[in-house]
Hints:
Blueprint: H1 2-9, H2 12-29, H3 31-34, H4 73-109, H5 111-125, H6 129-140, H7 144-153, H8 157-170, H9 174-181, H10 186-194, H11 200-222, H12 234-240, H13 257-289
Helix pairs in contact: 2-4, 2-13, 4-5, 4-7, 4-8, 4-11, 4-13, 5-8, 6-7, 9-10, 11-12, 11-13, 12-13
Amino acid sequence: MPGFFKQIVKQPGGFIGLVLVLFWICVAVLAPVLAPPQDSTDPYMIARYGFSTLPKPANETSLLGTTSGGYDIFYGIVWGSRTALITGLITVFFTSIIGVLFGGICAYHGGSIDDIAMRVVDLFMSIPFLIAVIVMTTVLGKGLEKIILALIIFGWHRYARMMRSEVLRVKKMEFVLAARNMGAPPMRIFFQHIIPNSIYPIIILMSINIGRIVLIAASLSFVGVGAEPGFADWGQTLNFSRAWISGIPGQPFYYWYTYTYASIAIITFVLGWTLLGDALRDIYGGEIST
């Protein structure tokens, strides 16, 4: 593991990505300390200071100011980091598990089962991902768990297709053929030989997809079909600033603080995971091609 991190930090992009990812993980872990909850029953509800429709700049009470409705921007950014990590990690974990098992087992078995499975994957790939997620979250209703469920249902097929291509390559290698000739059970060959030698592209895709999933979830909240109103989510914070993005006549950046901080949070979070994924691709590139 120390050698793995050394390979990452040797790359400028990998080092920056790792720093950004660790920064947001620290913010998420320390959220109760950085922004003590007002609502003990649900700390994810953004703290409010009044109900004014006008945003207010930074002051002693709110370090980064408030959005429309009196929602504390700093609180939304800090606790929104937890929402981002929960959404990204849970979604990527389950989509990768489903995709790896579905695509891997079907490819290993081959024949008509593999053909039918790939037609199912093609069906899901033909559906516009973002539109499908928006429709499903609209039907299911608002809430973080509804967003995660929709992202899982329509997001596993990318892992399945990638895993299938890797399994088709690995299962023809000599060490797999040798294990089969020695009488090893098919499932043992699959889990002990094929999966470990096919998983590297999946790990890279998982890292890149965490940022992508968070960006999509924030987009859903921004258009009003994602998190519940007042829930600590970066897209929700941007949603509260929609009416003030253009500022006031003659001063287009008068309410710049309502959207700048949340935008920076989203950009740095997504950039961190993307750069980390690129670094992993460079590290494992040689192993993948062999």
